[in-house]
Design brief:
This protein has eight helices and 20 strands. It is an alpha+beta fold and about 350 residues long. A hairpin with a 2-residue loop joins strand 17 and strand 18. The protein starts with 5 loop residues before the first strand and ends with a strand. The chain binds uridine-diphosphate-2(N-acetylglucosaminyl) butyric acid. The site of uridine-diphosphate-2(N-acetylglucosaminyl) butyric acid has 18 residues, from strand 13, helix 7 and strand 19.
Length: about 350
């Protein structure tokens, strides 16, 4: 471990998509698993707050960070197993997610085309089980490797061990902050299998004049990129972390009572008599869509996305999220939960 590997008092502004200018005491780039293990065996991380930074696309930095930021820069994409129908690809945690998606398409490996243009890194993708347009990471996940930050030992997490849920996994719960994900193995298909149940994707495919039996995963990817670009702000233009809240799930009885009062409520039926209501709709109904408060606001095309119009602090954005939570609670009796990780 060389001292010049540590950068001191470094601005995290380039490393979070909200563009918050918080400062970290120390930042260390991790390019190899062995480097991380060395830091642990040399007791560099002991008794200090440690924060693992991927693409910084699902975090809100509320304050300066008084500890060590480990920036995950482990790269590599390797086919580790193959059969007639499938390929298993091991990907370094520091790889950019969208570049990985494009690489799979270029190699005719299919299954993650619906997850095109999601910001962030491969290593962060299992933590919140990223999902979009009817596909979730768990649908293609095989296993991952992670380093125990206490012992430095490597551990393999199977699909089951990850306990995936809607924008959720064991890494956000029981073992939060205890492991650093260094690589992920995906099981991808060699045969295209389109996931086009999501209405907007099918509509766009139908509008292309290409006959249905010729639709390709690359076409789905291009459509997802177009839909996302029209609805979601580009972090390079306007700071944001995508959906700020999860879509709440409520019991059928509660939903029916709400539907009497709000007949135009948007909803999706779930198993077990539960109903999912889009948080973006609830927030829009409370009058927040496109609203600007100082340097903060919600995006004009998608109320679920909180934005930094420039120079907002993490505390200001957090305050806006609290105000939104309160008004949704008052109008609908539903408590939203934050999807973005709040870093204190
Ligand atoms: N809606 C509104 N007003 C808004 C936004 C949405 O009324 O301002 C209503 C519309 O009726 C729309 C419905 O909400 O039909 C659903 O909106 P959308 O299709 O944009 O999806 P979402 O439920 O808001 C979720 C994910 C997104 C993902 C999209 C597409 C969550 C928290 N968000 O958003 O994920 O891209 O579906 O699959 O589940 C992310 O997690 O960062 C993210 C962007």
């Amino acid at each position: 471990m060389l001292n010049n590997d540590i950068q001191y008092n470094i601005s995290l502004q380039p490393f979070n998509t909200f563009g918050i200018s918080a400062v970290a005491n120390q930042l260390i780039s991790i390019k190899q698993v062995s480097k991380l293990q060395q830091l642990i065996s040399n007791k560099i991380l002991i008794d200090k707050p440690v924060f693992i930074l991927g693409g910084g696309s699902n975090i809100l930095l509320k304050n300066n960070f008084q500890g060590i930021v480990l920036k995950m820069d482990i790269l590599g994409k390797n086919v580790v197993q193959e059969n007639e129908n499938h390929v298993w690809v091991k990907v370094g945690g520091g790889e950019n997610w969208h570049e990985f998606v494009l690489w799979t398409l270029a190699n005719n490996y299919f299954g993650i085309e619906n997850l095109s243009l999601i910001p962030g890194t491969v290593g962060a993708s299992p933590i919140q089980n990223i999902g979009a347009y009817g596909v979730e990471l768990k649908d293609v996940f095989h296993e991952l490797e992670a380093i125990n930050l206490q012992t430095g030992q490597s551990a393999t997490f199977s699909h089951q061990a990850c306990q995936f849920g809607y924008r959720n996994s064991i890494f956000k719960n029981e073992i939060k902050g205890q492991f650093c994900i260094t690589s992920v193995v995906f099981k991808l298909s060699k045969m295209p299998q389109l996931h086009i149940k999501y209405g907007a994707i099918r509509r766009e495919l139908e509008a292309t004049n290409v006959s249905e039996n010729q639709w390709t995963p690359k076409m789905v990817s291009d459509i997802v990129i177009a839909i996302r670009s029209s609805k979601l702000p580009d972090p390079a233009q306007i700071g944001n972390s995508g959906s700020f809240f999860k879509n709440p799930e409520i019991p059928l009885a509660q939903f029916k009572a709400l539907q009497k009062k709000f007949s135009n409520i948007v909803f999706y039926e779930l198993p077990n008599d539960m109903i999912k209501v889009p948080a973006g709709w609830l927030i829009e109904q409370c009058g927040w869509k496109g609203k600007r408060i100082g340097n903060t606001g919600t995006y004009k095309n998608q109320a679920l996305v909180l934005v930094n119009h420039g120079n907002a602090t993490g505390a200001e954005i957090y305050q806006l999220s609290s105000d939104i939570l309160e008004s949704v609670q008052q109008k609908f009796g539903i408590t939203l939960s934050r999807e973005v990780n709040i870093i204190e």
